[in-house]
Amino acid sequence: MSTSSRKKVLLKVIILGDSGVGKTSLMNQYVNKKFSNQYKATIGADFLTKDVMVDDRLVTMQIWDTAGQERFQSLGVAFYRGADSCVLVYDCTVSKTFENMNAWRDEFLIQAGPPDPDNFPFVVIGNKIDMEPQRTVPAKRAMAWCQSKGNIPYFETSAKEAVNVEQAFQVIAKTALGKEDEEPFIPGEVDFGDEPKEAKSSGCC
C-alpha cells in the first residue's frame, strides 16, 4: 500500500436546509446512533466528526450542521469554504422545505464558490419518511428535481428510525472523496467521476 493511500483524508461536509427538517437529527443518528424528540434550533453552526472506510481508505468526515434560520445565513461564507460535499435536506411532510431547495443550493454555490459549480457533489435527503401518512412531497417529484440538477444522488430517510441514514452518508463520503481525488484523479478508485450516470443513479433509491 502506498503512503498516499494510507494517509488520512479529511472531508468537509455541509448540511443545509430549512429549520426543523432534521439536519441535526440526521447528523446525530449517523455519528452517535442517537435520536432525540427534543427539538433545539442550531445556533450558527456545529460539527461532528466520524471516521469511515470508503473503498479501503480511512476517511474522517467533518459534518457541519448549519442553522436553518435566515438570520444566521450571514455566517455562511466561513462554513461553506472548502466544503467537499453539500447535503440538501427537506422534510417529506412540508412542501415548502422542498421548494426552498433551489435557494439553499444557489446560496451554497454563491458562498462556497467552488471552481466547477456544475459538477460539485450534492446529495439530497428527504427526511421524516416515518411520517408517511403526512407526506406532501412525492418521491417522483424530488427525483425529477435531482435529475434536472445533474443526477444528484437522492435518499429518503428517517433520522428517528435510522432508515437509510448510514447508506446516505456512505454515498456522501464517496462523492466528497471523488472531489478530493480529482487532482490527480485516480480512475476506478471511487465510483464517482468518469461514469456519473451509472454511479450516481445507484444512490437514488
TrEMBL record:
Region: Disordered, residue numbers: 184-205
Entry GO terms, CC: late endosome; lysosome; phagocytic vesicle
Pfam families: Ras
Signal peptide: none
Alphabetical keyword list: GTP-binding, Lipoprotein, Nucleotide-binding, Prenylation
A GO biological-process term: phagosome-lysosome fusion
This protein's record includes keyword Lipoprotein: yes
InterPro entries, sorted: P-loop_NTPase, Small_GTP-bd, Small_GTPase
Family named by the database record: Belongs to the small GTPase superfamily. Rab family.
Name recorded for this polypeptide: Ras-related protein Rab
Source species taxonomy: Eukaryota, Discoba, Heterolobosea, Tetramitia, Eutetramitia
